[in-house]
Amino acid sequence: MDISLKNLFLLSSSTFISSLGSILLQISLTFYFYETTKSALLTGILVSLQWLPALLIVFIRNNWEFGKSPLLKWRLSEICALTITGLLILFVDKSIYWVIAILFVRGMFDQIVRVNRTVACRYVFDNKKQQFYSSILQSSYHIGISVAAIFAILFIGKLNLKGIIVINLITYIISIFLITLSRTLKDFPRVQSSDSNNILFGIKDYFVILKNNGILRLYALLFPITAIFFQGTYSVLQTIYPLQKYHISANESSMSYVVAGIAIISGSVAFTYISNKIDLYNSFSKLIVVTLSLLTVITYIFSLAVSDKLQALILFMIMVFIFEILWMYGYIGTVKYSPNGKLSLIYGISFSIGCFGAGLMSMLLGFLLDLISNQFLKLILISNIIYMAIIFLLCQKNIFIVKELGVPNEKLD
């Protein structure tokens, strides 16, 4: 078997199984927190724990594209996450606050995994198939989310939290084994420049690169902005909104996770297929971004405005589907156009901005829902107006084709 294809199979399987276990535990804990505390704020804090630690990654290291193999760093991060998850068994029945602290630390290693997985794409896949295979690898993460949501319906209320933690530990072990079987195709930089891991130098370098490369700026800011305003809000609402508005059980409410998972998979697959057939990265980039953004906003608002729960579920599914295509458009564009040796810097900082912002958005939304008695539609309407204003500002400046920019090393190969 072709080594690049073998790597795709092994690493996609690893990503899928790791995602499945982690998200299954995340969903279970989210429902447990809300049913125990009845607080949207505490639920928002729990949701934010999967994103907030990303900001720390930039301060630990802003350039991951040097030193040990990205596969080795990916595997070691999974091992650390496995160890920390094991600690949950000791504290899950004792204190919610201990659980929050442990999940925060685990979240940090989960984000390190995502950074190294992105960096690895340049070193484990053939240049000609890099964009296509990178999309598939990212899609496998989302497929894991969808399957986790289905399992949540089966396990919530039937397995205690310790049983679900054990399932997560097993998925980590399998994931680590699959990463061990894969290997890099290209030499990985062993040394770094004296300033390349200085946080101030890295942030300055990030802004200079985005300032001088308009097309990269569009993509590198698009995927964190969409994560903040869409994922940062619907991740809280999909737990609380069905329970509050339709007065259904946690098992029934978890259908929103299944629907979101299906939409995410469909969006990832649709983007991967279309981008393999059509060049989406052209002079129509701004039009694509604005159109997809408007469609996401409209379906999001209508999903909260309708009174019928089936209609709301369908509209929610459409919204997540379009959001996923929009997020993937920014993500793959960032991988495609980041200068050589700067992918981990550009992706790492953009991803950290998105995760930290989404975490803050989750907590803010939870706080406001408690404060103004669950005014879901009003809050999301305000959020979406702000989002569209930012998108129009981002697209205001002319975005030129890469060849016109004259920026060196903007291509992967």
Which features does this protein show?
413 residues, Growth Hormone, Chain: A, single chain, mainly alpha
**Biggest sheet character:** none
In terms of DSSP E residues, the strand content is under 5%
- Helix and strand succession? HHHHHHHHHHHHHHHH
Number of DSSP E strands? 0
CATH topology: Growth Hormone, Chain: A
- Overall mean pLDDT stands at 83
Structural class: mainly alpha
List segments where confidence is low: pLDDT < 50 over at least 5 consecutive residues.
398-413
Our Rg estimate from Cα atoms comes to 20 Å
Using the alpha-carbon principal axes, give the shape.
Answer: globular
Number of helices: 16
Please name the fourth-level CATH homologous superfamily.
Answer: MFS general substrate transporter like domains
Q: What top-tier CATH class fits best?
A: Mainly Alpha
CATH architecture: Up-down Bundle
Quaternary organisation of the protein chains? single chain
Count of discrete domains = 1
Alpha-carbon distance between the two ends: 23 Å
Question: Roughly how much helix do the residues carry, as a percent range?
Answer: over 70%
Overview of this structure, please?
There is one protein chain. By secondary structure, the chain is mainly α. It is built from 16 helices and no strands. Helix 11 (255-277) crosses helix 13 (309-337). The longest helix has 35 residues, at 3-37. The protein is globular. The relative contact order is 0.16. Residues 398-413 have low confidence and may be disordered.
